[in-house]
Design goal:
Structural class: mainly alpha
Strand content: under 5%
Number of strands: 13
Radius of gyration: 42 Å
Distance between the termini: 56 Å
Helix content: 55-70%
Oligomer: single chain
Shape: globular
Strand order of the largest sheet: 10-11-12
Number of helices: 60
Largest sheet: 3 strands, antiparallel
Length: 1814
């Protein structure tokens, strides 16, 4: 099927048969393009989905009658789809040409579905049921999506985010692999031992409800924390399949990766932790799991969020801009037409009005119409500006309903008085409605109504019920009255303009409907609660109203995005539910029964998928799925379904909600900010002055340069400032080490708190600690007293209690003292109560660590950020609580009293649920006798308070499936549950989830993120630099040049080793080894046979050996000292030593000590892989950056944990532990470490509600010494856990998110903006030019380096030279005496130029520099002292008499400009032009005074100049030519075939290069930096001049160029000038232009040498011929052109020197990050080299060099292979001779040749010369 060859007909034929003109094909085309066809197909798809959804799946493939009937429809659907597919194939062709059927993704999907469908219908159908694939077609409705813009935004932002998400995905995968390998090493086979009963050796003894892994039978053998079987009842044997039927294990790499992924999603990770604790002991176990959660969950997965929100806001911005533009355009067009029309009408009206025959009445009519139009317009404008606020002051003037004519006619009638009275009455009512008291009256009514709704609860007395019943009617009546009154007063139209009124109207109508419904049918929906929303009106009174209103507006605007996202989410759930039904329907049948989460029917399947989306217990469903498909042998592949569902649903789609929220909040805050600015501009000015004064005062207070001055008030009315006692106290408090000492005491007291034993209060340790506590309290008391003496107590500014921190201190100290008083007083009488009071007083000691916050400024900043975000959160919190309240009230109406159940499930009422019953257990023969209890579920809705608690638990997503099951099973009040009694109740939860977890919680997160970002930016506002600029400057201040090492003696053994070690092949070899080693580590599995184990063991030794060899070689090459300078090398060394010890111990060692951790080193090698990829490097770099930002956030989180852990120990520490409930041996408050682990578990949300319930009422521990009937635990648990979850998940962990998003914003930012993550490349590339890390390189090398760095950091080699010069002039770094620039200065100048940090016109630059110096000193006070002069050089380094980069390049540009205008007017063949050239140089160097001022001016400054005329550029060039040490020029040179080597030019001695020519004066060999316009690198083309004049040479070559350009036309714009991406090599085709006269744009400085190109065969002859014709033609024109003023021809191509190629195409290395640059033309064949890091060459070989004579050159001297001829620029005659001699100098632009590795280089475009490039 399909046409491979397209026939000559206009369109390709379809299926080789039907041409374009064929009638059949024309008709099919018409049909498939006919809109109803598309809709018919969509309807069929939807019908098919409905059919799939209606099926009910029964166990063992049984089918209901309905299902059997539905199956018959299968053939029809298949038929329809077949017809559709064949029509499309006929119309479009099958696959082989553009636009054919299979070229479309949707069609591929359809085709696949149809084919699989046909296969299932065949008589010999395979077992697999392909009908599932039909579910994929549900995606088809997505095709309609393209029409809905908001859906496009959501989809596009998800698709756009895919690229960065993929990078992050790889990183996550990498982390999973590393952790899986470590898990494989440590836990492989660990979970297979469990306790078997001694009576029946095949029976497992449970611990609690489930079996648990064990370690040994004997306490003494087992490590600490491991589980030991009770030796008299059971024994520990290794024959168990493992927990979760063996699915959760680390037995091979697949299981390990699945388990690690499950931990990263934070579901069920604690169970795994506890099992491994039981199996291996708990001492070191947490070291594996805690970093896994922190890195995996908090870090990696939050990155996803950062990326998505960035992409979303970008995409939305894009769409909005586009829409805005379209709208503007349409409006403009309409306005033009409309105004034209209106003008025309008005003209006509004017004419009519002025005509005499027009009657009065007609005139009136026209005027009336005009007035009405004006009124309408006014209304319209008012409507526009009206907000969601309530009745604004509507236009009181009655422009109204009765127009002029009506009023006239009306007054004529007899009811005139009545209408007037009515109008007055209406005005009075309107006035009343708007008064303040009416407003508050309504608010109070709403409040009472809300209270009435809220007091309803289970078991309320009858009088309350009847009271509420009547109250409902009263309130309804009142509200209806209010509505009607308003409607009458304002008129319906104005009434409905306010959105609040519309809302009221809807709520009241709903309430009326509800009242009627409950009278007729009974039962209530709780809709009346919505009136509570009217409480929101109170906000009008508060100042938050504006910001809240903006938030609401912004949310309404994004409603579209949200709805489209919900639509996507629904489609997603639908598809996965159908898929799940096909895969798992009817399969979840286990001995324990069918679990409530299954895929048997469509509604339940939808709920199951929704539950997995919320991420709750998805692992449980996965275990069921795997078991149902044949357990771990066959079913593991099905885990993919669940993993994909979690990844795409939970991590991608749900994070888009957050993305939308962040975006909206940002919008809302911009709106609010804009409004506030407008209002407060006047106030602000006054306030700012005040603020500044205050700030100055504060600064004076805060920055104690000397000792703080004493407050000028008397302290406590007694002690004056001169009082010696007070002065002494002041002196002590302000001692340097006083604060430090207090900090130490705080830390010690915190440690003492953590060390207490919470169970047995009277043990010895606690007594000792108690004495310590006396001492600490003493210190704090003394501190408090001293401060009070110094500062005074309260009554004057700056007094002790005026500071919140001091109040806290005082409270803590006083409480401690009071409790000591009680103890010492020995209160024995009512010991019980007093003990608890004392205890609670002493718990306050926990707050001591908070005292440190004040003393660490950065910590205080983070703390302030949290406090500020709390302030911001408060107004949302109120709305949040209100919504929570509304949902709670609705839930009470729905489920009040319906959550009761009997422990004996056969009984359904309280009356039946009496007495005892038999309970049969799995392993026992006899049943147990148990009492029946009638209880409620632990989470229920019997009153509003417990309903809010339940909903809070649901909202954190923990345990909500259980609550959902209970709600769906709820029947009637006081009746027991029936499973899935009312499935529709799940809608309540789905709506709740969408409103709360998906949305409100995300707004919280978004608020914190935005506040955090604002805080960060607020610090910088004074400094006038933004965050990105700050981070870049931060980097610059810290950055130091890297050192690259190379052995000094060439030819030594060390040197040879070094060459091997640094070569690319070696790098790749090691990489390959690491990858193989990783694969080897992944191959291990549990129960592998001995041979396999041995193979793995010896392979591992082999790898260890190879890595050891690598390390040894590196140490030989670098020397020990240099080897350890690179942290990666140190890392390698440690891993190698570790691996060797590990291998030795495996071979010989009896395990004398536990060396398990050595196995870590095997996995550690993997980390080396991360050095390679550029994007991964940037990701990692940013990771490290965000880690640097995190310490203070972590400290704050640590404090929170510390405080809660100590409180938990004091309050819940003595609860008895039992395996049955959640306070057990793994999970308790017995010690500080245990408490921390428990809190960490809660923070990740692992079933915290159960822990909270376990802490409410519990038995006491035996050791606690409590009377037997007394209960431990307390109702404090509610407040304790809820507040902890709130602080932790909402605030703290979101700070994590905020920090990450802050640092990773570059992932979605425009990549052309320079960011700190780019700067690392600068350091790396600098090292290639300055291997010894001197921190200086020559300015010409600097130019080369910048050209070789890709933008946004460097200039990139596409940058035109002139533009590069202009940038350098603005950068203007000073040069030292050797013409070198400094590392820091260059980096900072680059950043400054790039990010435009205080860059101004030249005249103002000095001023800008000064300001920048101040800013830097202000923001980095410490670093500025050392670095300031490097960052912003002082003026005296830049001004008169000092050379700077700016001056040199300004000179170059001036000469460039001068040449383009003057050069051609000078007659040829005159006496030497040297003097002119010298003159030029002097002009360039004599750039007038001022640092950057006038550096680009074209006029040459006055000749009288300065005495420092020696600073001509010529002199500079001479000076820079003095011989340099060879060391600084180690450079890499690589040639494609015989790579050869030449020295850097600085190392050439000047004299040796000068041939004995008549005039060298202005431009001897080294001074060429001026003439070589295009770039100041390659300094050796100048020393050979011929008798022909300088300008003539230029002229001639320019002529050639022009001619060539005209001949080859546009073809030259694609120069064969190419990049070899792999090695970063660049191949240049020679082109005839000259750099003397043209601003070359070559990617790097051109060589002024002619290079031979000998290319064999016909092409050779062609080129020869072409060259000859071309030469002759240009010769003919030569005379004609000489006279005219020279205009510059456009540059035909990139490389702009006249170059003659020779045998091997000469390549340069451009800077791909790992390559160094080749900077000088090579002159002599040297030995071939293969590695990149070789630098330098012996100078001697270059100096003794014989220059090839011109005769040899004109004979077309062929250079030996790999060799180079070194030539001077040719005169025209020389070029002619060359042409005759057949050395093909200028090959015509032939197709670019392939490079040796088969890569065909890309052509580059050059820009035309006419543009100015800046």
């Amino acid at each position: 099927m399909g046409g491979a060859h397209q026939p000559a007909t206009p369109g390709p034929s379809s299926l080789f048969i039907f041409s374009d003109e064929n009638p059949i094909r024309r008709y099919t085309k018409f049909i498939i393009e006919w809109p109803p066809f598309e809709y018919a197909v969509l309807l069929t798809i939807i019908a098919n989905c409905v059919v799939l959804a209606l099926e009910e799946h029964l166990p063992n493939g049984d089918k209901t009658i309905l299902a059997q009937n539905l199956e018959k429809t299968e053939a029809y659907f298949l038929g329809i789809f077949c017809v559709e597919a064949s029509l499309k194939i006929l119309a479009l062709g099958f696959v082989l040409h553009r636009g054919s059927y299979l070229r479309n993704v949707w069609n591929i999907m359809d085709f696949f579905v149809v084919v699989t469908g046909i296969i299932t219908q065949l008589p010999v159908a395979p077992d697999v049921d392909f009908r599932t694939l039909r579910a994929i077609r549900v995606l088809r409705p997505l095709k309609l999506v393209s029409g809905v813009p908001s859906l496009q935004v959501v989809l596009k932002s998800i698709i756009k985010a895919m690229a960065p998400l993929l990078q992050i995905g790889l990183l996550v995968l990498f982390a999973i692999v590393i952790f899986a390998i470590i898990g494989l090493e440590f836990y492989s086979g660990a979970l297979h031992k469990t306790c078997y009963s001694l009576e029946d050796i095949n029976e497992i003894v449970n611990d609690g409800d489930n079996p648990t892994p064990c370690n040994a039978d004997n306490e003494s053998l087992a490590p600490y924390g491991a589980y030991v079987c009770e030796y008299d009842k059971s024994t520990c044997l290794e024959k168990w399949e493992g927990p979760n039927k063996g699915i959760t294990s680390f037995d091979n790499i697949g299981f390990a990766m699945l388990t690690v992924f499950q931990c990263i999603t934070m579901e069920g990770w604690t169970a795994i932790l506890y099992w491994t604790n039981d199996a291996l002991g708990s001492t070191f176990n947490w070291i594996y799991f805690v970093p896994l959660i922190v890195l995996g969950s908090f870090f990696m997965l939050n990155l996803v969020l950062g990326v998505l929100s960035g992409e979303f806001s970008n995409e939305r911005g894009r769409v909005e801009r586009r829409a805005q533009y379209q709208k503007e355009r349409a409006r403009k067009m309409f306005n033009e037409d409309f105004t034209g029309y209106i003008n025309w009408i008005t003209e006509a009206e004017e004419v009519i009005l002025h005509e005499e025959r027009t009657t009065e009445e007609e005139k009136m009519h026209i005027m009336e119409a005009r007035r009405r139009a004006a009124a309408k317009k006014k209304l319209k404008n008012l409507g526009k500006s009206k907000s969601t606020d309530t009745e604004e002051e509507e236009q009181d003037e009655d422009c109204g309903d009765d127009g002029f004519l009506k009023s006239k006619s009306r007054s004529a009638g007899k009811c005139a008085d009545f209408w007037r009275a009515e109008k007055r009455f209406r005005f009075w009512i309107r006035h009343t409605v708007k008064t303040q008291w009416f407003y508050w009256f309504v608010i109070v009514l709403v409040l009472f109504n809300t209270i009435c709704v809220a007091v309803e609860h289970y078991g309320q007395p009858n009088w309350l019920t009847s009271f509420l019943y009547y109250a409902e009617f009263v309130f309804l009546g009142l509200f209806m009255m209010e509505m009607w009154v308003k409607m009458y007063a304002l008129g319906p139209r104005i009434y409905f303009e306010s959105s609040f009124n519309r809302f009221d109207c809807v709520v009241i109508s709903a309430s009326i409907f509800e009242v009627v419904w409950s009278e007729v049918k009974g039962g209530s929906f709780g809709l009346s609660v919505l009136r509570a929303l009217r409480l929101l009106r109170i906000f009008k009174v508060t100042k938050y109203w504006a910001s809240l209103r903006n938030l609401v507006i912004s949310l309404l605007n994004s409603m579209r995005s949200i709805i489209s996202l919900l639509f996507l989410l629904f489609l997603f759930i639908l598809i996965f539910a159908l898929l799940g039904m096909q895969l798992f329907g009817g399969q979840f049948n286990f001995e324990e029964g069918t679990p409530p989460t299954n895929f048997n029917t469509f509604p339940i399947a939808l709920l199951t998928v929704f539950q997995i989306l919320t991420g709750e217990d998805w692992n449980e469903v996965m275990y069921y799925g795997i078991q149902s498909q044949g357990g771990i042998q066959k079913g593991m592949i099905y885990s993919l379904y669940f993993v994909i569902l979690v990844l795409f649903g939970n991590y991608t789609l749900l994070n888009v909600f957050l993305a939308i929220a962040v975006d909206n909040l940002a919008n809302a805050q911009e709106l609010t900010a804009a409004e506030e600015e407008q209002e407060e501009e006047d106030k602000e000015k006054q306030q700012q002055n005040k603020k500044k004064e205050e700030a100055k005062k504060e600064d004076e207070e805060e920055i104690p340069d000397g000792p703080k001055p004493m407050l000028p008030y008397s302290s406590m009315f007694i002690l004056s400032p001169t009082n010696p006692i007070r002065r002494g106290a002041h002196w002590v408090v302000n001692l340097k080490y006083f604060d430090f000492f207090i900090m130490v005491v705080i830390c010690m007291s915190s440690v003492a708190l953590a060390a207490e034993d919470p169970v047995d209060e009277n043990n010895y340790r606690n007594k000792v600690l108690n004495y310590f506590d006396y001492a600490f309290t003493g210190v704090f008391t003394v501190e408090m007293l001293l401060k009070i003496v110094d500062l005074g107590i309260l009554f004057h500014p700056g007094a002790y209690l005026r500071d919140l921190w001091n109040i806290m201190d005082a409270a803590v100290v006083i409480c401690a003292l009071v409790s000591f008083g009680f103890e010492i007083g020995g209160v024995k009488k009512s010991a019980g109560q007093n003990l608890s009071t004392i205890k609670s007083l002493r718990v306050l000691r926990v707050l001591r660590p908070l005292k440190t916050i004040k003393r660490v400024p950065k910590l205080k900043a983070v703390f302030d950020c949290v406090v500020n975000s709390l302030k911001n959160v408060i107004n949302i919190l109120i709305v949040y609580i209100l919504f929570q309240f509304i949902f709670a009230v609705i839930a009470v109406q729905l489920f009040n009293g319906k959550f009761f159940h009997c422990t004996d499930i056969s009984k359904n009422t309280f009356e039946d649920c009496q007495g005892w019953y038999f309970l049969y257990e799995a392993n026992s023969l006899l049943p147990r006798i148990t009492k029946r209890c009638w209880t409620t579920q632990s989470f229920h809705y019997d009153n509003v308070a417990s309903a809010m608690l339940t909903l809070f638990a649901v909202q954190t997503g923990e345990g909500w499936p259980q609550v959902l099951q209970n709600s769906m099973a709820a029947t009637y009040e006081n009746r027991g549950p029936i499973q899935n009694f009312r499935i529709e109740m799940s809608i309540f939860y789905i709506v709740y989830f969408v409103v709360f977890p998906f949305f409100f919680v995300n707004i919280f997160v978004a608020l914190i993120i935005i506040t955090f970002q604002e805080q960060g930016e607020a610090e910088l506002q004074d400094g006038e630099i933004d965050k990105n600029q700050k981070s870049c400057i931060d980097f610059t201040i810290e950055a130091r040049p890297l050192e690259r090492y190379m052995p000094s003696k060439r030819g030594s053994f060390k040197y040879k080793v070094w060459r091997i070690v640094v070569s690319t092949p070696f790098e790749y070899f090691i990489m390959a080894l690491i990858v193989l080693n990783t694969l080897l580590l992944m191959m291990k599995y549990y129960n592998q046979n001995d041979l396999y184990s041995d193979i793995l063991k010896y392979s591992n030794m082999g790898f260890t050996g190879m890595f050891s060899v690598e390390t040894v070689l590196k140490i030989i090459a670098y020397g020990v000292k240099n080897f350890f300078k690179d942290p990666w090398n140190t890392f390698d060394f440690i891993t190698v030593i570790g691996s060797i010890i590990d291998a030795l111990i495996m071979e010989f060692g009896e395990n004398t000590f536990n060396v398990g951790f050595l196995r870590l080193f095997r996995a550690a090698r993997l980390i080396k892989l991360l050095r390679q990829g550029y994007t991964i490097r940037i990701l990692l770099w940013t990771f490290v950056q965000s880690f640097k930002a995190l310490p203070y956030v972590c400290l704050l989180i640590a404090m929170l944990f510390f405080i809660y852990a100590i409180i938990g120990m004091q309050v819940f520490g003595n609860i008895e532990l039992s395996a049955e409930h959640d306070m057990n041996r793994h999970n308790n408050f017995r010690s500080f470490i245990q408490a921390l682990m428990l809190l960490f578990r809660c923070a990740t949300g692992e079933s915290w509600p159960n822990i909270m319930l376990a802490c409410l009422k519990a038995k006491c521990d035996k050791d606690a010494g409590k009377p037997p009937n007394e209960e431990c635990g307390s109702t404090l648990a509610y407040a304790y856990f809820v507040s902890f979850i709130f602080f932790c998940s909402f605030l703290m962990l979101n700070l994590f998110v905020a920090v990450i998003m802050d640092n990773f914003d570059y992932l979605t930012r425009d990549s052309s903006i320079l960011g700190a993550h780019h700067l690392d490349e600068f350091v790396r590339i600098w090292a290639e030019y300055d291997p010894n890390a001197t921190g200086k390189i020559h300015y010409t090398e600097m130019y080369d380096m910048l050209k070789n760095m890709d933008p946004p950091l460097g200039f990139g080699n596409k940058c035109p030279n002139r533009l590069a010069y202009k940038k350098l002039i603005r950068m203007n770094m000073p040069l030292d005496d050797e013409g070198k620039v400094n590392f820091t200065t260059t980096l900072f100048a680059l950043i400054r130029e790039n990010l435009n940090i205080k860059m101004r016109p030249a005249g103002e630059m000095d001023q800008a520099d000064e300001e920048l110096r101040e800013t830097i000193t202000h923001i980095w006070p410490l670093q500025a002292k050392k670095m300031l002069d490097f960052l912003v050089p002082r003026n005296d380094v830049l001004n008169i008499g000092k050379l700077t980069v700016g001056k040199i390049y300004a000179g170059l540009i001036i000469i460039e400009n001068w040449k383009t205008t003057q050069f051609g007017k000078i007659a040829p063949k005159r006496p030497p032009k040297a003097s002119l050239f010298n003159c030029l140089m002097d002009v360039a160097a004599g750039l007038g005074p001022g640092s950057r001022t006038g550096s680009l001016s074209h006029e040459a400054p006055a000749p009288d100049g300065h005495p420092e005329d020696m600073h001509t550029i010529a002199n500079l060039a001479r000076r820079s030519s003095t011989r340099r040490s060879f060391k600084n020029n180690k450079k890499v040179l690589e040639l494609e075939e015989g790579a050869s080597r030449h020295p850097s030019m600085e190392s050439l001695e000047e004299g040796k290069l000068q041939p004995p020519h008549a005039y060298q004066n202005g431009h001897q060999g080294r001074s060429s930096s001026l003439r070589r316009t295009p770039s100041p690198r390659r300094r050796h083309y100048g020393g050979y001049h011929h008798d022909i004049g300088f300008s003539d040479t230029v002229n001639n070559v320019v002529e050639i160029v022009k001619h060539e350009h005209q001949r080859h036309g546009r073809a030259h714009h694609r120069a064969p000038h190419h990049y070899h991406p792999h090695a970063g090599k660049e191949w240049r085709a020679p082109y005839p232009t000259t750099s003397l006269s043209l601003p070359s744009r070559s990617p790097s400085p051109p060589h002024h040498t002619y290079v031979w190109a000998s290319i064999g065969g016909d092409r050779d002859r062609d080129r020869d011929r072409e060259w000859r014709e071309w030469r002759e033609r240009s010769w003919e024109r030569e005379g004609a052109r000489r006279g005219r003023g020279r205009q510059l021809p456009p540059t035909p191509t990139k490389p702009s020197t006249l170059q003659v190629k020779q045998h091997p195409p000469f390549t340069r290395i451009s800077h791909s990050p790992s390559h160094l640059s080749l900077r000088h033309t090579v002159r002599e064949p040297l030995e071939p080299l293969h590695d990149e890091y070789e630098y330098g060459r012996e100078v001697e070989r270059l100096i003794h060099r014989d220059y090839r004579s011109r005769e040899r050159r004109s004979r077309g001297y062929d250079v030996e292979r790999g060799g180079r001829a070194y030539e001077a620029p040719l005169s025209y005659e020389a070029a002619l001779a060359l042409g005759r001699g057949g050395g093909r100098a200028l090959p015509s632009p032939a197709p670019a040749p392939r490079l040796p590795n088969g890569y065909k280089p890309r052509a580059r475009h050059s820009d035309s010369d006419e543009d100015d490039w800046c």
